[in-house]
Amino acid sequence: xxxxxNMPRLSDTMEEGVVASWLKKVGDAIExxxxxxxIETDKATMEFESFHEGTxxxxxxxxxxxxxxxxxxxIIGEKGEDFSALLNAPAVIEEKTAVVTxxxxxxxxxxxxxxxxxxxxxxMPRLSDTMEEGTVASWLKKVGDAVSxxxxxxxIETDKATMEFECxxxxxxxxxxxxxxxxxxxxxxxxxxxxxxxxxxxIVANGGATASAPTEKATxxxxxxxxxxxxxxxxTNTTTNNSGGRIFASPLAKKIAKDKGISLADINGSGxxxxxxxxxxxxxxxxxxxxxxxxxxxxxxxxxFVASGEExxxxxxxxxxRKAIAKSLGNSKFSAPDFSLNIEVDMDNAMASRKTINxxxxxKVSFNDMVVKACAMALQKHPQVNTSWTDNNxxxxxxxxxxxxxxxxxxxxxxxxxxxxxxxxxxIGAGVRDLAGKARNKKIAPAEMxxxxxxxxxxGMFGIQNFNSIxxxxxxxxxxxxxxxxxxxxxxxxIVVGNTMNLTLTCDHRTVDGAVGAQFLQTLKxxxxxxxxxxx
Length: 536
Known about the structure:
Number of helices: 12
Largest sheet: 6 strands, mixed
CATH class of the largest domain: Alpha Beta
Radius of gyration: 28 Å
CATH superfamily of the largest domain: Chloramphenicol acetyltransferase-like domain
Shape: globular
Strand order of the largest sheet: 17-26-25-24-20-23
CATH architecture of the largest domain: 2-Layer Sandwich
Number of strands: 26
Strand content: 25-35%
């Protein structure tokens, strides 16, 4: 019997996903555990594997298209099986909705509760595409515990396996809605997190229903209108050709075309259904357009010289990663009253120490590793910088997790080195290289990018000497690291050639005052200029 596979919710904040690429095509045999597709979420691009066996009968979301969670993604069944009834299922649902609406139109809408500021309602997540209910195997936090972003809240048993469920918020665990051993449907009230002491009894009484939930059921006509809007959005987000038709291209073809500055609308695809593949882009030459432009120029009347050329613009759909970056940094920049402090560091001792350390076989330490280690040690001495702001409290973190900004093709990711202060320089170096590699290859897990308490951003390798970073909230500060430059400096009253590096600390003034930030930078400078202090 054919099985419908829906767009999965791969994180608790995911509302829609983009199919980056299909690794299987219609007609292919599917084994349980096979990777069906790569799906781009608001966190990362993740592999989506099949929990079923059979033949891929239908693909509902094409490469590059965006679709909401629970939208029809694919159908798997027996080869040659008729699955048309599954495609027509929405019509049946609509008829049922019409009946229910007619019967209940006179009923009063369900009451909802206002969400107090800073409170987050967490529901039972759908951790697999077939999951309809989950069992709380164990709670790793109890009511009253402080919860940080990235903490494991509970272990949840699905129809596939027992999985750790991670928190994406910070605050106090105010309420637990499903006790250990209990089973509840997906989207049931699982927990409530917010500022300590907040009254959430109204939310609990309404089973988690809040004022943001819909208060009346949509009629079939409204549903059709919503569907049309969704279809319009989907079409708008898809690359189109000059006549407005949809363009199908492989991810590699898109990348090559983007790198070469070629519009996909100018290329004829040789793949299935006119799909543009790698060789089409590589073999494309814009000769025809050049000749036409040349003829037009030669036939024009003589006039004084005016620069001419083709005016061309191309709309490129924003990736889920770019949307997430824009939202996160926009919220940070426009909500946190920030300020920046600058300091210059003498790097002569650091350069000599690094050379000695790297002379040891199988050892590799970068200047960035030294900075990360020094930050972790300085945070221990200045806990006010290792904090997060909430509307009612300042959260002091006893753990030190340093995030390291990494540039990737689509934007920026921040892998997190957990318990950085407990690691040696070589351990930090190995950890940064491992996570940076995963980030660039789109193999990094969401858990490896969450829970930071401080962030380091280094553009020194690009020759940038000074810059200000936007705070990676909920952190209270971020350090911008510039290039090491050789210049005249004064030492012991003499002008000599020295090596210096500029550091800029951007702070959230709600938690970190100027004097605190300045003291942190002084401590950081001491550690970096005296690397022996970091070798213990």
